[in-house]
Amino acid sequence: AGQFAIIRINEVGERIPLTIADSDTSKGTITIIVQGIGKTTKELNSLEAGDYISDIVGPLGKPSHIENFGTAISIGGGVGTAIAYPTAVALKNAGNHTISIIGGRTKEFVILEKEMREICDEVFITTDDGSYGIECVVTDQVEQKLEKEKFDMIYTCGPEQMMYGMFLLAEQY
């Protein structure tokens, strides 16, 4: 949880950091989740089985601090759920009661719901437009949860505005 790899698709391509969403040491594989926004991520998403990536360096970064806190919540907004997922797995493996709140602008932007449901004790889905789950942004759902219960640790990843909102909520509670 918390580590990333740097990918370069071809010898003239740019190097981009991508979160490691999962890994299988017995197979020697990592799983990355990529939202095709720019030139490189769109090129990466166009690769097919049998294609290859020129360079990959990792794992890099400092792993997230994980221990048995008690009740821990992992929050993912959009593609930030790719970071919330390995965090939730590590928190559960450390013995925590795990809660996850994941969201997206619309249903199409909600990812890893099945995987989160398999690992977490509780999962809440939000969409900005109400097309799936609860109609609100993830910070609204977190605030509702914080009004009713206490969390021992909160991890969050998503758009900058969402993370700032989480910071303000954490300070308040």
Backbone shape: globular
Q: Biggest sheet, open or closed, and with what strands and sense?
A: 5 strands, parallel
How far apart are the termini?
25 Å
**SS strand fraction:** 25-35%
Number of helical stretches of at least 4 residues: 5
- Unreliable stretches (pLDDT < 50, length at least 5) are none
Q: Name the helix and strand elements from N-terminus to C-terminus, one letter apiece.
A: EEEHEEHEHEEHEH
How large, in whole angstroms, is the Cα Rg? 17 Å
Percent of residues in helices: 25-40%
Structural class, from secondary structure content? alpha/beta
- Widest beta sheet: strand line-up: 8-7-6-5-9
How many beta-strand runs?
9
Rounded mean pLDDT score: 92
Question: Nutshell version of this structure?
Answer:
The protein is of the alpha/beta class and 173 residues long. It has helices at residues 39-46, 81-93, 113-119, 138-148, 160-172, and strands at 4-8, 15-24, 29-32, 55-60, 71-77, 97-104, 122-127, 134-135, 153-157.
Topology:
Elements: E1 4-8, E2 15-24, E3 29-32, H1 39-46, E4 55-60, E5 71-77, H2 81-93, E6 97-104, H3 113-119, E7 122-127, E8 134-135, H4 138-148, E9 153-157, H5 160-172
Parallel strand pairs: 5-6, 5-9, 6-7, 7-8
Antiparallel strand pairs: 1-2, 1-4, 2-3
Helix pairs in contact: 4-5
Question: What do these coordinates show?
Answer:
The chain is an alpha/beta fold and 173 residues long. Helices cover 30% and strands 31% of the residues. It is built from 5 helices and 9 strands. The chain has helices at residues 39-46, 81-93, 113-119, 138-148, 160-172, and strands spanning 4-8, 15-24, 29-32, 55-60, 71-77, 97-104, 122-127, 134-135, 153-157. The strands form 2 sheets. Strands 8-7-6-5-9 form a 5-stranded parallel sheet, with helices on both faces. Strands 3-2-1-4 form a 4-stranded antiparallel sheet, covered by helices on one side. Helix 4 runs parallel beside helix 5 (160-172). The radius of gyration is 17 Å and the shape is globular.
